[in-house]
Amino acid sequence: MKRKSFTPLKLLALCFLVGCIITASGCVGKSAQTDDNVQTLIVAGPADFDSRVEMKMNVYDVFLDINANGKPIPGHLVSSWNESDDELTYIFNLNKGIEFHDGTQWNASSAAWFLTWCSQGPRKNDIAFLKISNVSEVDEHTIQVTLKEPYGAFIKSLSSESTSQVIAPTSVEPSWSNDGEIVSFIGTGKFEVENYVKAQSAEFVRHDPASGEGMLIDRISYRVIPDSYASVSALRAGDVDIIGVADHHSTVPYEQIPQMMSDPDIIVEKQSYGRYQVVELNCNEGPLSDIRLREAINLGFDRDKMVKELLASAAEPAYSVVSPTYPWASSLAGTEYTYDPEKAKNLLDQAGWVVAGADGIREKDGKKLTLTYIVPQGEANSDSIAVYIQSEMKKIGVEVKILVLESGAAGEERKKGNYDMYLHHSSGVPSLPEGPLTGKYHSTWGSWPASYHDAELDQLIEKAIATGADEDYSAAYLCIQEKYACMPLYDIEKIAAYKKSVKGFTFPASIYGLDLSTVSIEP
Questions:
Q1: Per-residue model confidence (pLDDT) at position 210
Q2: What is this structure's pTM?
Q3: Residues 246, 169 share a domain
């Protein structure tokens, strides 16, 4: 396990070191986008291609598409579908004339194999695929899916980029095996994987000839730059063409936005998907198992000040577990957490935690009120936010110890419940509204054993998942809000920063999407 204690001084030293390395090495080399009339877009991202849904969206199609309102719609692979009245049988009509990158046909055989593989292979733990009882071929371009029981979110799940990327049956070993492991990247998307070096780079070439008589990009070169400040430096130096689009986490430091916007050669755009940055709380054991303490720390820090001073006002503060603007979360309107440090102190007093020593940290039964806050590496704005929370909590007598961990190590600690506070997020469309409910807050379905759980919430979640009704989701989220299960921080605006010569970039409908096929580079 790699772990380090975090201090602002260490952060500055790290940034300086990374900057020196980039300067000395030339980082990734100057881009050569238009050599020999071949347009290559150089994209920087924080992690390996195989772990990034966004970059895979140039290689794979999703079974169903999704619109900007988060509603499933027909797409490249499926033209239409019908659902039986008992919500157990679905008929999908497939588009014709589509091939995977290796020439395998997209038809009823490959479509039926894909959904069967999802229900029996590596994706079988997804709730939607667990519900599948049988998949059969009706004719060459039609399949029928039968569920074990009604599942209101089934169609929605088929439009999720994270779970429903359609792979070729020849991309697993053994080929066409229902439980085969993926061994190659073969999809129906606009780009093929030409070369891949794990944790370093990936090269893509357009699968079909570019329309627009060569004006659109022919190739994508993906470079892994883990440090968010280094990626900004690479963009400003002209070493990469675009940053911030290859990940649904915060990969561009918000405080760098004004500086980039003042650069005449860089364009900065942002898009909200209602995906909140949150701190999940250990509601199972330790001090935060007391709801009074969970409420106190939620009321004890100023979110408005945080956004203005640390995030250059590039994001909106979040006061509820998910955005109340969604129809399925309308019950949260009027229940937002407000900044009230005096009430926070009173709640801590009522819980028996009182200031006893000169350090101002509260104690109870001879034990100081100290919380361990795990911050997984990879979130661009997480370090400064952690220090801010630490400072705000001290004002109400709560000591916060920040533990920055490599993401895999942090995940292991999370699964063991070895934390009081854990930086995470609320998911986004299309994972919302189901994602946090099934992944975190149901007592047996998810992988967050220390999150808030009880029988009442389980029942509310199960009802919402079964019916898919807005009012049922809204009731479940209200329960989570009233239990102070997490600390909402801010709306994670997705930032795209790119060179002025890049034309045609648009944000996709979903935070997990990315379509670079419409991009061109001005000579």
A1: 60
A2: 0.80
A3: no
